[in-house]
Amino acid sequence: MGAGPTGLMLAQMLRLNGGCHVVVAAPEGLKMELAKKLGAGDVYVELSRTDASAQWQKIKDENKYGFDIVVEATGSVKLLEDAIHYVRRGGTLVVYGVYSNEARVSWPPSKIFGDELRIIGSFSETYKFPATIDYLDSGKVKVDGIVNKTYKLEQWGECLEAMKNKTAIKAAIVFD
User: Fold this and answer.
1) Please, is 55 exposed, middle or buried when counting C-beta atoms within 10 Å of its C-beta (0-12, 13-18, 19+)?
2) Is 81 helix (H, G, I), strand (E, B) or coil?
3) What DSSP assignment string belongs to 23-72?
């Protein structure tokens, strides 16, 4: 779930490490277009920004047993709460998005122990950083287009606005 910069890289790494049916679900627009261009997934589900319930239901209908691994990479608490319902029995939910300290989720314990789910967190790939650098250096993980806007320091306001109004996938401030 999610096609932001780290989500796009993680989807590619999942494919490179045995993921055989990687579904990228994200809102329609720039990030989803880039996900397709990078070949981040096998299937792409473009979610409506106004009401994505039909697309989420279609994912459930087409994957009735759920997924071995579900990665919530958006930082949306609502999507994190819903993500557990897409994990197959014995599967894993990876909490990969960034959330505020005040954020809370509510999951039924019976779902977790009854389906023998594993929930793991991943913030900065503590033990995989060298491997990640190798993937980037080798070109196996494609990043062209992720930083799609650059600004000078004095344009910091424009940079923040581009991120806020979603005209940038990832913006960077560059120094002369």
Assistant:
1) middle
2) helix
3) EEEEESSHHHHHHHHHT--SEEEEE-SS--HHHHHHHHHHTTT-EEEEEE
CA 74-62-21 angle, 5° bins:
65
Reported pTM: 0.85
pLDDT tens digits for range 16-66? 888 889 999 998 888 999 999 999 999 999 998 889 999 999 999 999 999
From residue 33, how far is each of 45, 61, 105, 111, 168 by CA, in Å? 11, 24, 30, 34, 12
d(CA 76, CA 132): 25
Residue among 39, 48, 46, 50 nearest 25 (CA): 46
C-alpha angle 142/144/149, rounded to 5°? 145
